[in-house]
Amino acid sequence: MTVTSEHVTESAGGQEASGALAPLMRGLSARVDHVRDQPLFQRDPEFLRRQLPAVTRYVNYFSPEVRGQEYLPASGPALVVGNHSGLFYMPDAWVVGLEIVRRRGLDQPAYAMGYDLLFGVPGVGPFFRRIGAIPAGGQAAEQGLAEGGLVVVYPGGDREACRPWTQRNKVDLGGRQGFVRLALRAGVPVVPVVAHGSQDAVVVVSSGERLAKALGLQRIRIKVFPILLAPYGLTTILTPPLPMPSAINVEFLPPLDWTDYGPEAADDEAIVAACYAEITGVMQTALDRLHAQNRHPVIRGWCNLLRPGRTRLQIPG
């Protein structure tokens, strides 16, 4: 589900590989180019239905609390924009997916923009396609919105998901404004969704940007290679610790309406910057509030996990 707004318009093959892992990067990039030839939309409602129990059990490990579901449009196109947390565990993103199904049902199209590399990994790519993920590169998101679908995007991508623990309560979309242009061109409501607690589940010591560059990961647009704190000491994303049961809060916020600007505003840098500032400000205010309400999510999560009869999310009907 990791995506940046850069991914909305750029190809993975735009840079030359260098660094220690250059041969591997070239191979992965070639595989990504190959899977782009596959059909964009492969969402399978029946397959998705079968995954709901397992996904619900997984997110309940994190004692999720959800608010603001009524702000999700029950039908029609919309762009849902979230802050990205928790490395690849991303429990809040799965909660968002469950609530979209609960609100809109399985038959209405809903998609999540995903990092192109995911679609080139055997087994992983087909799974994500069938649950509704679409490659961020190209025009898939615009087409999905044009056909009445809901699209979820996490503009901060790996940069935000791997931000250090000291920055866990900061919304960091990295200045990526492609999602704003997408919303303006499509003329759809924009629903911010903010999550708190996911970034507490794993302690990121450093995002490892220099290490990522040395390894040549920029070939596939990976700019981080996080260093993590585990019970057995410092480690990397290659041998990550299991996530702690940090209690997460997910809150959907009132939709932002930029339709009065018109689609041509997507080419107006001042308007794009103003919309970007508006949504990041709204999201940061909400995250600050959630943090004030739940300052110790890991402690709370452990207590909830050990408490008999604790409240759990139900499988969407």
Structural class label: alpha/beta
How much of the sequence lies in strands comes to: 5-15%
Helix content: 25-40%
CA distance, first residue to last residue: 23 Å
Q: What's the CATH topology name?
A: Glycerol-3-phosphate (1)-acyltransferase
Sheet with the most strands: spatial strand order: 1-10-6-2-5-3-4
Major sheet: size, sense and barrel closure? 7 strands, mixed
Sequence stretches where pLDDT stays below 50 over 5 or more residues: 1-15
Structure description:
- Mean pLDDT is 87; it is low at 1-15.
- The chain is built from 11 helices and 10 strands.
- The chain is of the alpha/beta class and 317 residues long.
- The radius of gyration is 19 Å and the shape is globular.
- α3 (45-60) packs across α4.
- α5 links the parallel β3 and β4.
- It has one domain: Glycerol-3-phosphate (1)-acyltransferase (3-Layer(aba) Sandwich), CATH 3.40.1130.
- Helices cover 37% and strands 14% of the residues.
